[in-house]
Amino acid sequence: EVQLVESGGGLVQPGGSLRLSCAASGFSFASYDMSWVRQVPGKGPEWVSNIDTGRPTAYYADSVKCRFTISRDNAKNTLYLQMNSLQPEDTAVYYCHTFPFRGQGTQVTVSS
Question: What does the DSSP 8-state code read for residue 90?
Fold first, then answer.
């Protein structure tokens, strides 16, 4: 059974940082490209970042480029998202994703 379990969300002030983790199991993690997607209630999902299985190479949405860093530890079957300089517009539920699977999400709230 494929499982993706996100953690690390919370409430942070504007300009603050959070590090999200996604523990993966039930599949060969190292062989799959992985993504972070976020969603605000009432809106569609927004792709944030993904990382491939190669070098690996990371890709970012323009809205988070230079503030967020995606990484993976294949030995630990874990995906990470380091988020710096957080802004209120980053408030969303963040999901770990590898098609067609998605975790349950972790809430990130940026507010003073």
Answer: G
Cβ distance 36 to 16 under 8 Å? no
pLDDT tens digit sequence for 58-73: 999 999 999 999 999 9
Closest CA to 92 of 61, 56, 47: 47
DSSP letters spanning 33-44: -EEEEEE-TTS-
Adjacent-strand bridge partners of 107: 93
| Cβ-count burial 28-59 (b if 16+ within 10 Å, e if not) | ebeebbbbbbbeeeeeeeeebbbbeeeeeeee
pLDDT at 55: 87
Distance between start and end Cα atoms, the chain: 40
Task: Name the residue type at position 49.
Answer: S
**Length of the chain counted residue by residue:** 112
